[in-house]
Amino acid sequence: MDWKHGYFAEKGYTFGYYAETMPIRLRWAGLIQGHACPFTGFRYLDAGCGQGLNLIMAAVAHPDSEFVGIDFLPEHIAHARALALSCGVKNVTFIEGDFVELAADPRVLGEFDYAVCHGITTWIAPEVKSALFNLIGKVLRPGGLFYNSYNTFPGWLGTVPFQHLVLLEQRGRTGEKALDAARESCKVLGECAPGMFNALPALESRMKALENQDPAYLVQEYNNHFWQPVFVSQMIDDLANSKLNYLGTATLPEAYDNLLPKPVLDLLDRQGDAIVREQLRDYASNQSFRRDLYVKGRRQPWPGELATLIGDFRVGVSLLEARPAAGEPYAIRCGTGETKGERKFYDAIMDRAGAGADGATIHDLINRRKDPRDRGGVLQAVSMLLYGGWLVPLLDVNGAMGAAVNRHLAAAVTSGAPYRYVSLPRFGGAAPMRDTDWFMLDCRCRGVPAKDWLVSVNAALRRLNRGILKDGQPVDSDEERDRILAKGIEEFCAVRLKQIECAGGA
Ligand SMILES: C[S@@+](CC[C@H](N)C(=O)[O-])C[C@H]1O[C@@H](n2cnc3c(N)ncnc32)[C@H](O)[C@@H]1O
Predict the structure, then answer these.
(1) What is the pLDDT, as a whole number, of residue 175?
(2) Which atom of ligand 1 is found nearest the CA of 53?
(3) CATH of domain 19-154+229-295
(4) Could you report the per-residue pLDDT of 324-334, keeping only the tens digit for each?
(5) In this structure, how many other beta carbons lie within 10 angstroms of the beta carbon of residue 154?
(6) Max Cα-Cα span within the chain
(7) Which of 17, 369, 379, 435 could make an S-S bridge to 374, C-beta 3.0–4.6 Å?
(8) 6 close to ligand 1 (CB < 6 Angstrom)
(9) By three-state DSSP, how is residue 141 classified?
(10) Which segments of the chain have a pLDDT < 70?
(11) What is residue 373's predicted lDDT score, i.e. its pLDDT?
(12) Three-state secondary structure readout of 310-375
């Protein structure tokens, strides 16, 4: 086998950002599930870091810590290094390396407090997977936290025939052509001989979703020979062999069993075995993608210490997520459906967290409750508000690196780069951006006077041969486009730019 070990490496991956992998969010997820990770001067490993944007977003939020990304695709490492260098991010190192080779001599990497694998472990050959688990098990410090997100059953069961066809079509064809051929065949079959589709209703919705997904994601999702979703119980057993023991979830609503329907909760409660419980939970939600946390030796603080660590955690209000309409609950989509956060209770937390630039600590939020038993309710509400995007974690950090990253990204997007996330260092991560938001941020960074932004944004659109959409349709008239853009500039300055500035990103 060649250096790829059967991995699909025909095309570079997307320039993604994954909030759950950010250290501040890992810390919160760890704390509410009883594990404390170090939070200053730590070392963080991203194994299979892809284009490196996600790791850079993490690094700028923690200038006193050290970040290392590994990937075997030279194209990814070339991009990641160039980006870090142009943005002046010095606390990140990108290594062109193969999990199998590194597992033979893991000590060259040193030790880490956090290790992250986003979208890796169910796309690689079995021998690569065991080398990777070995590597993580060796380089993680005792007490370290491992984040592992992956495809799982039962959610992916219905898609197996489609992925199999993509692989068959790949004989003698490029990845994208194979995907297209498999889609075309499934379309014909769905219309004329729908037996398989009737038996696997999820297949149809998965095929529909393909229409709007980034081709760079699709080929690495479906064209991998070793694409193999697993049951959670298999993953937990596998990792235990490398001293990595299941702690819980990084998908915050999934940490709260009380959100499950009562009969399911009763079913789980009757189940004595923790792994069977976890498996049943996935059956209940038809889980297809898990974000798991594992520990190499749990760092379980004493109860008083844990309460202090949780109490000191600080949150603020995001400007990007409007509160629900009057009288409506905070609706959050998760596992088994939608959960509704009680309006008055959640509003009280939002009011307190939004009262000043420094937000509120969990101590502040708990101390305002009359009944001390509300503590659990406050923690759950904060988790849900963080997950829903209404709250953001707050860090005491100088945003200089984030501002430099954003300046560079804005200029790059204005000359055609595909970046979609802006660094928000004080909030410990990033937020999505549209092209036109970047063009406006670029104006702000270059000191273009406000009255000239519209001309500048229009010029960028023309130069890149892009238009704008209204209700999903292209806007053809110049006046209409100017009206929409002028309104967009107003909104950008009132909300998104304000958020970027509050977060130290500009
Ligand atoms: C689906 S991508 C995910 C990338 C990144 N974590 C993200 O989510 O944007 C999987 C990554 O694993 C890398 N990879 C696969 N096999 C590898 C190996 N044996 N050694 C190092 N990197 C590998 C690929 O190059 C690719 O960047």
Answers:
(1) 86
(2) 9
(3) 3.40.50.150
(4) 999 999 999 88
(5) 16
(6) 69
(7) 369
(8) no
(9) strand
(10) 1, 372-373
(11) 67
(12) HHCCEEEECCCCCCCCCCCCEEEEECCEEEEECHHHHHHHHHHHCCCCCCEEHHHHHHCCCCHHHH
Q: Name the token pair of 20.
A: 């759950």
- Ligand 1 lined by 52 (C-beta under 6 Å): no
Phi-psi region of 72 (alpha: psi -120 to 50; beta: other; left: phi over 0): alpha
DSSP string across 240-278: HTTT-EEEEESSGGGG-GGGS-HHHHHHHHH---HHHHH
> C-alpha 28: how far from its chain's center?
15
Helices and strands, number each (H, E), in the chain: 22, 16
Tokens of 316: 């603020």
In 206-218, which positions are buried (b, 16+ CB within 10 angstroms) versus exposed (e)?
A: bbeebeeeeebeb
Q: pLDDT tens digits, residue range 7-53?
A: 998 889 999 999 999 999 999 999 999 999 889 999 999 999 999 99
Burial of 395 (0-12, 13-18, 19+ CB in 10 A): buried
Name the residue with the closest Cα to ligand 1, atom 20: 98
Residues with Cβ within 8 Å of residue 344, at least 6 apart in sequence: none
The CB of 151 under 6 Å from ligand 1? The reply is no
Nearest CA to 169 out of 185, 158, 157, 156 is that of 185
Dihedrals phi, psi of 120, to nearest 5 degrees: -120, -50
In whole angstroms, give the CA distance from residue 232 to residue 238.
10
- φ/ψ of 139, rounded to 5, equals -85, -15
Q: Is the CB of 481 under 6 A from ligand 1?
A: no
Of 4, 7, 136, the one to substitute when testing ligand 1's pocket (max ligand atoms within 8 A of C-beta) is 7
